[in-house]
Amino acid sequence: xxxxxxxxxxxxxxxxxxxxxxxxxxxxFLETILRIKIAKIEYPEVQKNIDIAAGAKGIRxxxxxxxxxHTEFNLEMQTTTARNLPKRMRYYQGMIDINLLRKxxxxxxxxxxxxxxxxxxxxxxxxxxxxxxxxxxxxYPEMELGDDTYKIFFxxxxxxxxxxxxxxxxxxxxxxxxxxxxxxxxxxxxxxxALQMARNNEEWRxxxxxxxxxxxxxxxxxxxxxxxxxVA
Length: 232
Fold this sequence. Notes:
alpha/beta; 6-stranded mixed sheet; globular
């Protein structure tokens, strides 16, 4: 059963997407979670749809942004345990690349790309805060392929690994949506403020309710189709 709108937390897909529509939140979020500096977010594309061809499985990206150096960042919330999560990430990466090539038709136009899954469970059962993957050579592990792709899984329930206190606090806030007492972290305070404001946004409330109704209708249609196929 879907959550009531006023109960949505930052880790909920809809709420995360609408809050990250604002560059003033997504920029420091990326800077904190990745420990990098970004001068400017060129454009945010929230819940970007990529459909390559009729009959192909399309994707909807939660948050898709680009910085001033044309590095791409795809942020995805993952709150339910999913099988084949690594292959899902591979598919997302491939679809993003194909979408770019369709526009430019030149491999040299492929950009540095980070696909980031923020999981509210441990995707690899190692109790690590973060799992980062790059393509390297099996025979010469120090040699990277140089394809400029980065695949990163964050675990909001992590306990192990060397990450900053700011990263730990951000992951904890994503998990709980509870502002710590005497919080001094400006990003977390800003995110909590944005969450409270979003919960009172009637336009977004209506969008959420419409989306949930559509999901329910699709579910009911699927059940009916399943019954008809079983009878046939």
